[in-house]
Amino acid sequence: MALRISLSTPPSLHSTPSQWSSSSSSSLVPSRCVDWSATKRRVPSAISMERKRESVGVVRSSLEATQEAAGAVAVEGQVTEVTKDTFWPIVKAAGDKVVVLDMYTQWCGPCKIIAPRFQELSEKNLDVVFLKLDCNQDNKPLAKELGIRVVPTFKILKEGKIVKEVTGAKFDDLVHAIETVKSS
Protein backbone atom coordinates (compact mmCIF):
# COMPACT_ATOMS: atom_id res chain seq x y z
CA MET A 1 0.00 0.00 0.00
CA ALA A 2 1.39 3.42 -0.91
CA LEU A 3 0.65 6.81 0.59
CA ARG A 4 0.69 9.78 -1.71
CA ILE A 5 0.71 13.32 -0.32
CA SER A 6 0.33 16.25 -2.65
CA LEU A 7 1.65 19.56 -1.36
CA SER A 8 1.26 21.55 -4.56
CA THR A 9 -2.39 22.43 -3.98
CA PRO A 10 -3.72 24.25 -0.92
CA PRO A 11 -5.40 22.09 1.71
CA SER A 12 -9.13 21.73 1.56
CA LEU A 13 -11.55 21.15 4.37
CA HIS A 14 -14.13 19.76 2.01
CA SER A 15 -12.34 16.95 0.26
CA THR A 16 -14.76 14.64 -1.51
CA PRO A 17 -14.35 11.13 -2.86
CA SER A 18 -14.43 12.51 -6.41
CA GLN A 19 -11.18 14.34 -5.62
CA TRP A 20 -9.51 11.11 -4.56
CA SER A 21 -7.33 9.14 -6.89
CA SER A 22 -6.48 5.53 -6.74
CA SER A 23 -2.80 4.79 -6.07
CA SER A 24 -3.50 1.09 -6.21
CA SER A 25 -6.50 -0.98 -6.96
CA SER A 26 -7.13 -1.72 -3.27
CA SER A 27 -6.76 1.73 -1.63
CA LEU A 28 -7.97 5.23 -2.15
CA VAL A 29 -6.07 8.32 -0.95
CA PRO A 30 -7.07 11.98 -1.14
CA SER A 31 -5.35 14.01 -3.84
CA ARG A 32 -5.12 16.96 -1.42
CA CYS A 33 -4.03 17.23 2.19
CA VAL A 34 -6.71 18.04 4.68
CA ASP A 35 -5.77 20.71 7.24
CA TRP A 36 -7.59 19.59 10.38
CA SER A 37 -5.97 22.29 12.52
CA ALA A 38 -8.16 24.92 10.87
CA THR A 39 -11.34 23.25 12.05
CA LYS A 40 -12.94 24.57 15.23
CA ARG A 41 -13.07 21.70 17.69
CA ARG A 42 -14.49 22.29 21.14
CA VAL A 43 -13.79 18.82 22.51
CA PRO A 44 -10.49 18.72 24.43
CA SER A 45 -8.00 16.31 23.00
CA ALA A 46 -5.95 13.84 25.00
CA ILE A 47 -2.88 16.03 24.37
CA SER A 48 -4.51 19.19 25.72
CA MET A 49 -5.75 17.30 28.77
CA GLU A 50 -2.21 16.00 29.39
CA ARG A 51 -0.85 19.56 29.17
CA LYS A 52 -3.39 20.67 31.75
CA ARG A 53 -2.29 17.86 34.07
CA GLU A 54 1.35 18.86 33.59
CA SER A 55 0.63 22.52 34.39
CA VAL A 56 -1.21 21.51 37.55
CA GLY A 57 1.85 19.44 38.49
CA VAL A 58 4.10 22.47 37.95
CA VAL A 59 1.93 24.59 40.22
CA ARG A 60 1.94 21.88 42.87
CA SER A 61 5.72 21.59 42.58
CA SER A 62 6.25 25.32 43.02
CA LEU A 63 3.97 25.31 46.07
CA GLU A 64 5.94 22.44 47.55
CA ALA A 65 9.18 24.30 46.81
CA THR A 66 7.84 27.40 48.59
CA GLN A 67 6.85 25.33 51.62
CA GLU A 68 10.21 23.59 51.53
CA ALA A 69 11.99 26.97 51.29
CA ALA A 70 10.06 28.27 54.31
CA GLY A 71 11.48 25.43 56.41
CA ALA A 72 14.98 25.57 54.90
CA VAL A 73 17.71 25.55 57.54
CA ALA A 74 21.49 25.55 57.33
CA VAL A 75 23.22 23.00 59.53
CA GLU A 76 26.06 24.28 61.70
CA GLY A 77 29.46 22.86 60.78
CA GLN A 78 28.32 21.64 57.36
CA VAL A 79 27.98 23.01 53.86
CA THR A 80 24.31 23.26 52.93
CA GLU A 81 23.22 22.85 49.31
CA VAL A 82 20.79 25.62 48.31
CA THR A 83 18.57 26.34 45.31
CA LYS A 84 16.99 29.48 43.93
CA ASP A 85 14.03 28.79 46.22
CA THR A 86 15.93 28.08 49.47
CA PHE A 87 18.82 30.56 49.28
CA TRP A 88 17.17 33.78 50.48
CA PRO A 89 15.13 32.16 53.28
CA ILE A 90 18.34 30.65 54.68
CA VAL A 91 20.19 33.96 54.38
CA LYS A 92 17.35 35.72 56.23
CA ALA A 93 17.32 33.00 58.91
CA ALA A 94 21.08 33.50 59.43
CA GLY A 95 20.38 37.00 60.78
CA ASP A 96 23.65 38.80 61.57
CA LYS A 97 25.84 35.72 61.00
CA VAL A 98 28.31 35.76 58.13
CA VAL A 99 27.13 33.66 55.16
CA VAL A 100 29.59 32.23 52.63
CA LEU A 101 28.16 30.99 49.34
CA ASP A 102 30.16 28.72 47.02
CA MET A 103 28.81 29.07 43.49
CA TYR A 104 29.99 26.09 41.45
CA THR A 105 29.13 23.77 38.55
CA GLN A 106 29.31 19.99 38.28
CA TRP A 107 31.79 20.10 35.39
CA CYS A 108 34.25 22.64 36.90
CA GLY A 109 37.64 21.13 37.81
CA PRO A 110 38.76 23.91 40.22
CA CYS A 111 35.32 23.71 41.91
CA LYS A 112 35.86 20.01 42.61
CA ILE A 113 39.36 20.64 43.97
CA ILE A 114 38.33 23.36 46.44
CA ALA A 115 35.10 21.67 47.63
CA PRO A 116 36.77 19.50 50.35
CA ARG A 117 38.69 22.52 51.68
CA PHE A 118 35.45 24.53 51.75
CA GLN A 119 33.90 21.70 53.80
CA GLU A 120 36.85 21.86 56.24
CA LEU A 121 36.32 25.60 56.62
CA SER A 122 32.68 25.00 57.56
CA GLU A 123 33.74 22.51 60.26
CA LYS A 124 36.23 24.99 61.77
CA ASN A 125 34.04 28.13 61.63
CA LEU A 126 30.84 27.22 63.44
CA ASP A 127 29.81 30.88 63.69
CA VAL A 128 29.59 31.15 59.87
CA VAL A 129 26.89 29.70 57.58
CA PHE A 130 28.37 27.86 54.60
CA LEU A 131 26.21 27.33 51.50
CA LYS A 132 26.80 25.99 48.02
CA LEU A 133 24.79 26.68 44.86
CA ASP A 134 25.01 24.56 41.73
CA CYS A 135 24.81 27.13 38.93
CA ASN A 136 22.85 24.84 36.64
CA GLN A 137 19.89 25.76 34.45
CA ASP A 138 17.44 25.48 37.36
CA ASN A 139 19.36 27.99 39.49
CA LYS A 140 20.31 30.32 36.64
CA PRO A 141 17.99 33.16 37.79
CA LEU A 142 19.67 33.30 41.22
CA ALA A 143 23.16 33.05 39.73
CA LYS A 144 22.31 35.97 37.44
CA GLU A 145 20.84 37.95 40.33
CA LEU A 146 24.04 37.45 42.33
CA GLY A 147 26.18 38.51 39.34
CA ILE A 148 28.22 35.37 38.76
CA ARG A 149 30.78 35.59 35.96
CA VAL A 150 33.12 32.67 36.67
CA VAL A 151 33.10 29.51 38.74
CA PRO A 152 33.97 28.99 41.44
CA THR A 153 32.81 32.29 42.89
CA PHE A 154 32.45 32.80 46.63
CA LYS A 155 30.03 35.47 47.84
CA ILE A 156 30.30 36.57 51.45
CA LEU A 157 27.15 38.09 52.89
CA LYS A 158 26.44 39.86 56.14
CA GLU A 159 22.92 40.88 57.21
CA GLY A 160 21.61 39.78 53.79
CA LYS A 161 24.00 41.94 51.74
CA ILE A 162 27.00 40.89 49.68
CA VAL A 163 30.08 42.45 51.27
CA LYS A 164 32.94 40.48 49.65
CA GLU A 165 33.57 38.28 46.64
CA VAL A 166 36.38 35.87 45.80
CA THR A 167 36.58 34.48 42.27
CA GLY A 168 38.50 31.36 41.41
CA ALA A 169 39.75 28.53 43.62
CA LYS A 170 41.87 30.84 45.80
CA PHE A 171 41.60 29.26 49.22
CA ASP A 172 43.90 31.69 51.05
CA ASP A 173 42.03 34.69 49.64
CA LEU A 174 38.74 33.11 50.75
CA VAL A 175 40.00 32.53 54.31
CA HIS A 176 41.28 36.13 54.49
CA ALA A 177 37.96 37.52 53.16
CA ILE A 178 35.96 35.51 55.72
CA GLU A 179 38.18 36.68 58.60
CA THR A 180 37.92 40.30 57.42
CA VAL A 181 34.11 40.18 57.30
CA LYS A 182 33.88 38.40 60.68
CA SER A 183 36.02 41.07 62.35
CA SER A 184 34.10 44.00 60.87
From TrEMBL:
InterPro entries: Thioredoxin-like_sf (IPR036249), Thioredoxin_CS (IPR017937), Thioredoxin_domain (IPR013766)
Keyword Ribosomal protein carried by entry: no
Keyword flag Heme: no
Keywords per UniProt: Disulfide bond
Location of the region described as Disordered in the Swiss-Prot/TrEMBL record: 1-30
Pfam families tied to this protein: Thioredoxin (PF00085)
Every Thioredoxin domain range: 61-183
PANTHER family in alphabetical order: THIOREDOXIN-LIKE PROTEIN 1
Family of this protein: Belongs to the thioredoxin family. Plant F-type subfamily.
Protein name, per record: Thioredoxin domain-containing protein
Lineage: Eukaryota, Viridiplantae, Streptophyta, Embryophyta, Tracheophyta
